[in-house]
């Protein structure tokens, strides 16, 4: 289960995301031009599918804004169990195989549970991950990640209520399409979108560059963002507009006049100087996939940062070295302390 990374919406995990927050490229190079006012309305039917707990199963229910982290985790658990149901039934004549399949299912559920992270001020691998621009520290925000067939889904919470889902497509879903071409395929599904551009300063002057596609969806907003520069993927971001506005106001209060440097860009620039956090791909390892780090020669799939709670530097998250086992051991010792994790009790 590569959290690389979310759920059926994860038209698969892998995009260098520029979600609801300011895109990395915009942060580093230019300003968005034109804004999103007057964006066309997306297909309500297709938007509802993005909220489905499991695609193709009308009885699986939907994720609703305001759900508590433990409620989302309970729905995710049901979805994962549904995914393994057929395999378990087909192994009915082989008890040993059934046990192995059930163990695999348990590990996947527990990996999702472990991904739950509150952003309470301590810097970690999340700050330089694909969703780094999607949150700020110390503003009552949190994330939970799950890997689905088509994408990786990141659930974002504000004051313990779900308000945003960030869907990073699997690279296989992109079929080698450019961002413009992929945007056209999304328009075929959700309806015409508004292209939003940004002005980038270059040596030759100002370049007018496509930043993202935008749709209105009733009280919600939908975006398709380009995260291919570092991760080689694109992402859909669905969020409740009213709560997003509250999040923005909270960020202004907690971090007034805050000017954030692009830590992901710096991490790539400094890659190779320090070792990796061995736990930063916990869900990927559970599912048996290999994840590359940002800045490697080939575009990397999304990686879910360490959930150990120990802050790591951008270079440590993105470095090529596989060393770092001693610091990892220290993280495990700290993790043994009693926590107030709302996911406690959901583990199989």
Task: Reconstruct the topology from this structure.
Blueprint: H1 24-29, E1 30-33, H2 44-50, H3 69-90, H4 95-115, E2 117-119, E3 141-147, E4 151-158, E5 161-169, H5 171-174, H6 179-190, E6 194-202, E7 205-217, E8 220-227, E9 233-240, H7 241-254, H8 263-269, H9 282-287, H10 314-318, H11 325-335
Antiparallel strand pairs: 1-6, 2-3, 3-4, 4-5, 5-9, 6-7, 7-8, 8-9
Helix/strand order? HEHHHEEEEHHEEEEHHHHH
Number of domains: 1
Fraction of residues in helix: 25-40%
Could you say which structural class the secondary elements and strand pairing correspond to? alpha+beta
Give the strand order of the largest sheet, numbering strands 1, 2, ... along the chain.
1-6-7-8-9-5-4-3-2
> How many β strands by DSSP?
9
Radius of gyration in whole Å, from Cα?
A: 20 Å
* 3D shape: globular
Enumerate how many helices there are, as a single number.
Answer: 11
Q: Taking all residues together, what is the mean pLDDT? A: 75
Termini Cα gap: 16 Å
Oligomer: single chain
The amount of beta strand, in percent, is 15-25%
Biggest sheet descriptor: 9 strands, antiparallel
Which regions are unreliable across 5 or more consecutive residues at pLDDT < 50? 1-29, 259-279, 291-300, 309-338
């Amino acid at each position: 289960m590569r959290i690389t990374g979310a759920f059926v919406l994860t038209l698969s995990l892998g995009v260098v995301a520029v979600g609801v927050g300011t895109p990395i490229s915009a942060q580093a190079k230019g300003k968005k031009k034109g804004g999103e006012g007057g964006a066309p309305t997306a297909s309500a039917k297709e938007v509802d599918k993005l909220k489905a707990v499991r695609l193709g199963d009308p009885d699986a229910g939907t994720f609703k804004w305001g759900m508590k982290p433990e409620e989302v985790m309970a729905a995710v658990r049901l979805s994962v169990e549904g995914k393994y149901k057929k395999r378990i039934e087909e192994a009915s004549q082989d008890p040993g195989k059934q046990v192995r399949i059930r163990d695999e299912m348990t590990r996947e559920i527990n990996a999702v549970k472990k991904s739950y992270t509150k952003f309470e001020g301590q810097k970690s691998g999340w700050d330089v991950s694909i969703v780094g621009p999607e949150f700020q520290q110390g503003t009552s925000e949190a994330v939970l990640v799950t890997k689905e067939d088509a994408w990786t889904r990141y659930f974002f919470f504000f004051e313990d209520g779900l308000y945003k889902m960030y869907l990073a497509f699997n690279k296989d879903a992109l079929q080698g399409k450019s961002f413009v071409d992929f945007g056209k395929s999304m328009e075929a599904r959700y309806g015409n979108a508004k292209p939003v551009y940004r002005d980038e300063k270059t040596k030759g002057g100002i370049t007018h560059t496509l930043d993202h596609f935008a749709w209105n969806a009733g009280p919600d907003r939908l975006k398709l963002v380009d995260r291919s520069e570092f991760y080689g993927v694109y992402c859909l971001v669905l969020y409740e507009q009213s709560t997003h506005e509250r999040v923005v106001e909270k960020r202004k209060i907690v971090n007034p006049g805050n000017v954030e440097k692009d830590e992901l860009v710096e991490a790539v620039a400094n890659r190779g100087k320090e070792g990796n956090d061995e736990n930063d791909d916990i869900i990927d390892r559970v599912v048996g996939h290999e994840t590359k780090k940002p800045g490697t020669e080939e575009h990397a799939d999304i990686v879910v940062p360490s959930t150990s709670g120990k802050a790591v530097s951008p270079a440590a998250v993105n470095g090529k070295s596989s060393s770092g086992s001693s610091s990892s051991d220290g993280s495990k010792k700290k993790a043994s302390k009693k926590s107030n994790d709302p996911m406690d009790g959901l583990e199989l």
